[in-house]
C-alpha cells in the first residue's frame, strides 16, 4: 500500500467514524445544544467534535483528489518491511507478556518483557537494561500496591507467596 492510498483510506475511515459518533449522539437523544440553567447538553461536545473531525476528513479527501499535499502524490510504500517486522515482534512480545501474567504474575512477566525489549530489541547497555528491568516493576509496585492499594496479578501460588514475603517486609517497615 502506498502513502497515497493510506491517506485516502484514513480519510474515509475517519469520516465514517465521525458519522458513527454523530449518529450515536443523535440516536441516544443526547442534547446537542445549550440546556437553560445547566450549560451544554451531554451530547454537545461529542457531536461537535465529531463534526469537526468529519469536516477535517472531508478536507483530507478533497485534497487527496486534488493532489495538493506531498502525501497525496507519494507512491512510496506506506510501511517498509522492517517496520512490519518490528510491529510483529512487538505484538508477539505483548502477547507473551499477557500469557505469562497469568502464570508468573505481572511483575515477573514485565521484567522478562523489558529485558527482551530493552536489551534484545533496543541493544542498550547492561547497566541501563538492568536498571529498567528492576526499576520499572518496583516503581509500578510502589504506585499501585503501596500508594493506591490496588493489587496487580501475581500469578500462580508460588509467585504470589514471593509477594506475600515482600508485603510482610513492607508492613514491618511501615509499622
Q: Name the average pLDDT.
A: 91
Give the fraction of residues assigned to helices: over 70%
From N to C, what is the helix and strand string? Answer: HEEHHHHH
List low-pLDDT spans. Answer: none
Q: Which strand order do you get reading across the main beta sheet?
A: 1-2
Task: Name the shape in a single word.
Answer: flat
Radius of gyration: 25 Å
Count of individual helical segments: 6
Distance between the termini: 62 Å
Number of strands: 2
Determine the structural class based on helices, strands and strand pairing: mainly alpha
What composes the largest sheet? Answer: 2 strands, antiparallel
Our estimate of the beta-strand percent is under 5%
Would you kindly provide a written description of the structure presented here, covering whatever features stand out?
By secondary structure, the protein is mainly α. Helices cover 76% and strands 2% of the residues. It contains 6 helices and 2 strands; from the N terminus they run H-E-E-H-H-H-H-H. Helix 1 packs antiparallel against helix 2. The protein is flat and about 65 Å long. The model has no long low-confidence stretch (mean pLDDT 91).
Q: Can I get a quick summary?
A:
76% of the residues lie in helices and 2% in strands.
Topology:
Elements: H1 3-27, E1 34-35, E2 39-40, H2 44-66, H3 70-73, H4 81-121, H5 126-147, H6 157-174
Antiparallel strand pairs: 1-2
Amino acid at each position: 500500500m502506498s502513502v497515497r492510498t493510506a491517506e485516502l483510506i484514513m480519510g474515509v475511515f475517519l469520516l465514517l467514524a465521525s458519522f458513527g459518533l454523530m449518529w450515536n449522539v443523535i440516536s441516544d437523544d443526547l442534547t446537542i445544544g445549550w440546556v437553560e440553567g445547566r450549560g451544554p447538553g451531554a451530547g454537545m461536545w461529542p457531536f461537535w467534535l465529531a463534526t469537526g473531525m468529519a469536516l477535517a476528513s472531508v478536507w483530507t479527501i478533497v485534497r487527496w483528489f486534488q493532489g495538493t499535499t506531498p502525501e497525496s502524490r507519494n507512491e512510496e510504500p506506506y510501511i517498509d518491511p522492517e517496520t512490519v517486522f518490528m510491529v510483529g515482534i512487538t505484538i508477539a512480545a505483548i502477547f507473551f507478556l499477557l500469557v505469562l501474567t497469568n502464570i508468573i504474575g505481572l511483575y515477573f512477566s514485565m521484567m522478562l518483557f523489558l529485558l527482551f525489549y530493552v536489551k534484545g530489541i533496543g541493544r542498550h547497555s547492561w547497566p541501563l537494561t538492568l536498571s529498567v528491568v528492576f526499576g520499572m516493576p518496583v516503581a509500578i509496585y510502589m504506585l499501585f500496591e503501596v500508594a493506591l492499594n490496588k493489587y496487580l496479578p501475581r500469578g500462580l501460588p508460588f509467585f504470589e507467596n514471593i509477594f506475600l514475603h515482600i508485603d510482610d517486609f513492607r508492613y514491618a517497615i511501615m509499622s
